[in-house]
Design brief:
The complex is a heterodimer of chains A (627) and B (161). Chain A is built from 18 helices and 21 strands. With 627 residues, chain A is α+β, with helices and mostly antiparallel strands. Classes of the chains: A alpha+beta (627), B mainly alpha (161). β5 of chain A pairs parallel with β1 of chain B, so a sheet runs across the interface.
Chain lengths: 627, 161
């Protein structure tokens, strides 16, 4: 029987033949282990038609030829593999390679050590000694500055060790291996699962450097309430996954989804992955996996790790312009750090100037704006001066924890409402797959970062008695990154999709539209951002005389929270089309959103526009529901 | 239906993503200051940020190939002479020398705490340790191209009396 299960395995030990394997397999069958939740979790089985199928694609993950779809035969073959007498030196014994399965099966079946070959697992022993898992943290790096698409983001898992300092813990992440130069086929390959997804492990400080110091993303840490023995189980499963791949799908079978299996392996009774799996689940948004963990009540506490950028703004806050300039001169090498020491500033301000200069120097280097030798000299020069100024007893630049990303509105949105557009009343229904726009309330999000992905709107006009596609934006990004005294980022936007546009016949017609622009924005008060962007606009439709119109223009606007729950966006846009159908289009609008709860709000938008010399007024009121 | 939607999305992404910069993954290895491993170019592009779960690293840190807790090791670096140092502390120093130098100069910080823990400085001795390192900064970081081994030895010299 055993030989039948593992044909060709010449190394099957004599001990298997003496009947012990058969006994174990019999017992496993009687207990129905192959149907237990833990086995399902460890093998990543998911419903597939009438049966199940593992989401792992690598055949090396399975011991039985049909193991991917047959939990029982995989379990029996796994038991058989434990009886392997010898393995090549470069290989791990199945008892080690499938250490999570081995551990669980041993618990459930009570292996007799006398009758089962005991494999040595030196690699695993070393790793488990070094990692020594104590607890698990789900880590979410927040949106990258001036790159709203990074909202789709990333999560990783941190395994805390007996070492106290968090930087010394271990980061486990899952990623598509794209190779050095991803190239233009990158999105296609990613969408259709042509990349291999693999787990990797790094010291956590490497991840903190990557996100906090290089990409300038704040990091959110969700401490899970897994016990040390559960954290160990997670680690055992990581070990099983280390050499295998799964086809990687950007949207659904992505990093955040995969990590859920690691958490489930720690505590199999948790059902985290279920809600993200199914025919109609097109994507898994990382922050939603955080919310799923919150919902199951496994998040003990949340901690916040501000980026270098956030730290710099904090150090600079409360500095007058002159002192900021001093810091900038030091960074630029125009002013020796010594001069700061000799200045008449109070000691706390000297520290502040040099602390800011040190961070800025590192920042510039990480952006490739300083050569290494120049950086080394300047950085050490600043620090040498700073080291003579002693230490305040408390952290001089404490940063208040903002609203965490999981507390913001949910990613999908529907809007229902109606209004008046000259000269007809209409009803409106909108659906947006994800994620956030500047008229949505910002708590939990980076203000000024907008990405609408799959934004669909229909209008029913009562006068015409007709339902029309009003808008389908495939993607709509707006990144308002305010200028300040230290940083001068470029704000930008891009929109691709179809929308109704007022044309020469004084009617609205669906037009393919590509709009892009760049410009500047500046912070107004604590919550406001004013912006000015140059626009390029391309429209294509058979309704246009020349089938297209290409224009240039600009957009100016101001978004501000007048009250905590009341947000206003006032904007005006002028576009002058000089190629294709020559015409002008001018619009001005006032958009208001009033929050009722985190996931419910009312909005009232009013717009006046002129296009091809035709005027229209558009007023619409909607109920927004985020889900 | 799912395929159609996916194709539509893929097409539009190709459109938007034609701006995908062919950036260089830059690794700046070494044993001194400014050795942070960083990537630029492609990582700044819209698409890359949308699909953060990808890596263009070729896999020398894929689990199982390297040891836990150690990225590249410090075999390319000169080794410190002092006995208290250990491979993890050396590794940590190489990977974090910049932030460690900053913390030492400021007399406090998480990176400095981690280093103290790795080198076995008990919690109650840390304020003293931090102060000794801060006042000894110029003797620790003796030149701008100072390397891990010297920094380790210098820290040992400055902190034990």
């Amino acid at each position: 029987m055993a030989a039948f299960l593992l044909p060709g395995s010449s190394s099957m030990a004599a001990s298997a033949a003496d009947g012990y394997l058969g006994k174990l397999q019999q017992l496993a069958r009687e207990k129905g282990l192959a149907r237990e939740r833990t086995w399902e979790v460890l093998l990543h089985y998911k419903p597939d038609g009438a049966g199940v199928k593992s989401l792992v694609d690598d055949p090396r993950f399975f011991n039985a030829a049909d193991g991917r779809k047959n939990p029982e035969s995989e379990l029996l073959a796994t038991l058989a593999s434990f009886f392997t007498a010898t393995v090549r030196e470069s290989e791990e014994h199945p008892q080690c390679r499938f250490i999570a399965r081995y551990t669980w099966l041993n618990e459930r079946l009570g292996f007799d050590p006398e009758r089962l070959p005991k494999a040595a697992c030196p690699k695993f022993e070393k790793a488990v000694y070094e990692v020594n898992p104590k607890s698990i943290v789900l880590v979410f790096p927040n949106t990258l500055l001036n790159s709203p698409s990074s909202m789709f983001g990333h999560t990783l898992l941190r395994i805390n060790t007996t070492l106290e300092n968090d930087l010394l813990s271990h980061a486990v992440s899952y990623a598509a291996m794209t190779g050095e130069n991803p190239g233009a086929l990158y999105p296609i390959k990613g969408l259709f699962g042509l990349y291999e997804g693999r787990y990797s492990n790094l010291p956590y400080y490497e991840k903190v450097k990557e996100y906090n110091d290089i990409e300038q993303r704040d990091i959110w840490e969700y401490h899970l309430n897994l016990e040390p023995e559960e954290a160990l189980r997670t680690f055992l499963h990581v070990w099983e996954m280390k050499d295998v791949y799964s086809d990687y799908y950007f949207f659904d079978e992505n990093c955040s989804f995969e990590l859920l299996f690691l958490i489930e392996a720690g505590r199999p009774s948790l059902r985290l992955a279920d809600e993200f799996y199914g025919m109609w689940r097109f994507w898994v948004i990382p922050v939603d996996t955080v919310r799923a963990a919150q919902k199951l009540g496994i998040v003990d506490r949340v901690s916040y790790r501000p980026s270098r950028y956030t730290k710099m703004l904090r150090i600079a806050s409360g500095m007058d312009e002159g002192r900021k300039d001093t810091a900038l001169e030091v960074v630029d090498g125009k002013l020796p750090s010594e001069n700061v020491l000799k200045s008449v500033l109070p000691i706390t301000e000297k520290r502040r100037v040099l602390d800011l200069a040190a961070e800025l120097t590192q920042y510039r280097f990480s952006k490739g704006k300083l050569e290494q030798d120049e950086y080394q000299k300047r950085f050490l020069d600043i620090l040498a001066a700073r080291s003579t100024l002693g230490t305040p007893s408390e952290d001089p630049y404490p940063i208040a924890t903002p609203t965490s990303p999981d507390q913001g509105h949910l990613s999908a949105r529907t809007r229902t409402g109606g209004g008046y557009r000259s000269d007809s009343w209409f009803g409106e229904f909108e659906w947006r797959a994800a994620y956030h726009e500047i008229t949505d309330l910002d708590e939990g999000y980076v203000p000024g970062a907008q990405i609408n992905f799959m934004d669909l709107s229909f209008r029913y006009y009562f006068d015409d008695d007709v339902l029309r596609l009003h808008r389908l934006h495939l993607i709509n990004i707006l990144s308002l990154a305010p200028w300040n005294s230290i940083f001068r980022p470029i704000s930008w936007k891009v929109t691709v999709g179809v929308e109704e546009v007022l044309l020469a016949d004084s009617k609205d017609h669906p037009v393919f539209r590509l709009n892009a622009g760049g410009g500047l924005s500046t912070a107004i008060g604590r919550t406001g951002i004013a912006y000015l962007l140059a626009d390029a606009d391309l429209q294509a439709s058979t309704r246009l005389d020349n089938d297209y119109a290409l224009g240039l223009g600009g957009t100016a606007g101001l978004m501000v929270n007048l009250l905590k729950d009341w947000k206003v966006n006032l904007w005006a846009q002028g576009l002058f089309y000089s190629a294709g159908d020559e015409h002008q289009a001018i619009a001005a609008a006032l958009q208001q959103t009033l929050r009722l709860t985190t996931n419910n709000s009312i909005s009232l938008d009013a717009k006046r526009e002129r296009s091809f010399g035709n005027y229209k007024t558009d007023v619409v009121m909607r109920w927004n529901w985020y889900y | 239906m799912k395929k159609v939607i996916v194709i539509a999305i893929a097409f539009s992404l190709m459109l938007v993503g034609s701006a995908l910069a062919a950036g260089q993954a830059r690794t700046n290895a070494g044993c001194g200051l400014g050795t942070l491993i960083w990537k630029d170019g492609a990582n700044d592009s819209v698409l890359y940020q949308a699909f953060q779960c990808t890596t263009n690293e070729t896999g020398n840190w894929v689990l199982g190939i390297q040891t836990f807790g150690i990225t590249t090791g410090t075999s390319e670096c000169q080794q410190p002479k002092n006995f208290a140092s250990n491979e993890r502390a050396n590794e940590f120093m190489v990977a974090n020398m910049d932030n460690l130098a900053r913390d030492i100069a400021q007399g406090r910080g998480e990176t400095l705490d981690a280093f103290a823990e790795l080198t076995g400085v008990p919690a109650d001795k840390r304020p003293e340790f931090n102060a000794q390192l801060q006042s000894g900064f110029a003797r620790i970081f003796t030149s701008s191209d100072v390397q891990m081994a010297s920094v380790m030895d210098n820290i040992a010299a400055v902190s034990t009396k």
